[in-house]
Amino acid sequence: MATATAKPKTNLQRASELGALRSEVSRMTTYDWVALDKRGKRMKGEMPAKNASLVKAELRRQGMNPQTVRERSKPLFGSTGSKVKPGDVAVFSRQIATMMASGVPMVQAFDIISEGQKNIRFKNILLDVKQNIEGGAALHEALGKYPIQFDELYCNLVHAGETSGVLDTVLDTVATYKERTEALKKKIKKALFYPMMVLAVVFVVVLIMMLFVVPVFAKTFQDAGAALPAPTQFVVNASKFVQSYWWLIIGVVVGGVTAIVMAKSRSIKFAHLLDRIALKLPVMGDITRNSAIARFARTLGVTFRAGVPLVEALDAVAGATGSVTYGDAVKQMREDIAVGHQLQLAMKQTGLFPNMVVQMTAIGEESGSLDSMLFKVAEFYEEEVENAVDTLSTLLEPMIMIVLGTIVGGIVVSLYLPIFKLGATIG
Q1: Sheet of 65-71: strands edge to edge?
Q2: Where does the UniProt annotation locate this protein (predicted)?
Q3: Within 13 Å, how many C-alpha atoms sit on residue 174's CB side?
Q4: How many Å apart are CA 341 and CA 329, to the nearest integer?
Q5: Which of 99, 108, 303, 335 counts the highest number of beta carbons within 10 A?
Q6: How far apart are CA 296 and CA 303, in angstroms?
């Protein structure tokens, strides 16, 4: 009697079964459990299951005595997790690079990293990437589903590592790149945060004085019936205006900031204008320029070391400079290199790169060590940014105190001028 042989499953059937299994798992409830092992040691963990009885049965099968099995409560707020920050991606890159270099299989590495991930949103992203890899997708394809967290540059570098067979090395390079880039961003934010906070405090303090302090003095002056000095009259009139139109002042400030942010994101010309102004500012212009050069050099060095062709690499580098002006210059360089020009010549034509950067690039091209030279350029300009940030902080502190003292002190002195005048008259 002939026996029927089972036909091998097609890829479509396997994919369908895997999708059904994932759907079933996603419908399960997560239970937190506490149990005692064979030695009486207290153990705890979590397990997805359809009900608590199945969790207890599985624990007993593993030789443990269940104590408590409770359904994990869902948080009222933030159940989807907070925003995935670039720093989170940098830490993930370092973790996955270390594990792969140690011989841990990629799927298992994703399991370990996602298990220790506190950000629920990022955890779900990593689990989905792992499932796509299990389904046959390449790592760069699975990461490409999340372009906000893993941009085109990141995916291109991973793809280059997969193609060349040195994915762990490339991931380690990417991790270093992300860490250095984030450190540079933090330095720039540090330079901007302090003056912005002080200006905000000055605005609030002046607003409070105009709304609550000056009116008390104004009433006293009005009851006295004395003529007010010009500075005092100006402050009183300003206080009356603020009391009548405080909502308009706040609306203009908030609306102005919002309009600038929206205009920058929607208008290329306006973004160019702001970028040119930023590059011409004293001290701040040096920080903007040096940070753009540092990002350009490090990003291009990373992509070149990963094996990405130079013309393709410049596409990703243009968006990583953090400057509209330098981004456009990189795009122009890409066109020049596409028709056969050397990188150092294309850089020189833009007029935006210092002679030292151009010469080091030329040496790197001639010696075949372009990536190493670019990394040295990046390190030099990153240090320049750090020094400029320290200089800016040192310069801003006395300037801010002078502005703060002038505004607040001027209001206080103006309010006391009639009192001083009255005292002089009596004397």
Answers
A1: 42-49, 29-36, 65-71
A2: Cell inner membrane
A3: 31
A4: 15
A5: 303
A6: 11
- The three-point CA angle 127-128-131 to 5° equals 90
Residues forming a β-bridge with 48: 30
CB-hemisphere CA count at 13 Å for 183?
A: 16
Measured distance CA(79)–CA(398) in Å, rounded: 45
Answer for the pair 93, 101: CB distance below 8 angstroms, yes or no. Answer: no
Place of tokens 């990189």: 330
- Closest listed residue to residue 184, CA positions, set 95, 292, 93: 292
Main-chain dihedrals φ then ψ at residue 108, nearest 5 degrees: -65, -35
Q: Which residues contact 184 (CB under 8 A, 6 or more apart)?
A: 291, 294, 295, 382, 385
Phi/psi class of residue 225: alpha, beta or left (left: φ > 0; alpha: ψ in -120 to 50)? left
Please tell me the distance from the alpha carbon of residue 379 to that of residue 409, in angstroms, as a whole number.
Answer: 44
Beta strands 42-49 and 29-36 are: antiparallel
Amino acid at 201: V
Q: Other CB atoms closer than 10 Å to residue 228's CB: what's the count?
A: 20
Query: Phi and psi of 225, rounded to 5°?
Result: 75, 15
Integer CA distances (angstroms), 161 to 125, 131, 132, 140, 167, in order: 21, 20, 18, 9, 4
Q: Is 142 helix (H, G, I), strand (E, B) or coil?
A: helix
Count how many Cα atoms sit within 13 Å of the Cα of residue 206 in the half-sphere of its side chain. Answer: 22
Do residues 113 and 126 touch, judged by C-beta distance below 8 A?
A: yes
How many Å is the maximal CA-CA distance in the chain? 130
pTM: 0.66
Residue 306 in tokens: 């990963």
- Paired with 216 in beta bridges are none
Express each pLDDT in 57-114 by its tens digit: 888 888 888 888 888 765 544 445 568 888 888 889 889 888 888 888 888 888 888 8
